[in-house]
Amino acid sequence: MLGVDVSLIFRLAALAIMITIFYTFLKQAGRDEYAYMTVLAGLAIALLWIIPVIMELFNAVRAVFQLY
């Protein structure tokens, strides 16, 4: 069974809040390039946290349908 940890959801929410704050400050300061880079960095971090969960899901689907 998939065990999605609740702490992952809280970490993603905290990351989203931090990225939103940084993006807003940088955008208002006229640093658009840095604002977009901050968003891309946040997206990369989020993907690094989510990819193992997605792999676990695919492995569970393979096990259920015996697709080895």
TrEMBL record:
Which spans are transmembrane here? 6-26, 38-58
Keywords (alphabetical) are: Membrane, Transmembrane, Transmembrane helix
Tell me, what's a Pfam family for it? SpoIIIAC
Can you tell me which residues the record assigns to a coiled coil?
A: none
Q: Specify whether Membrane is a keyword of the entry.
A: yes
Source superkingdom: Bacteria
Q: Which NCBIfam families match?
A: spore_III_AC (TIGR02848)
> What is the official name of this protein in its record?
Stage III sporulation protein AC
Organism whose genome encodes this protein: Thermanaeromonas toyohensis ToBE
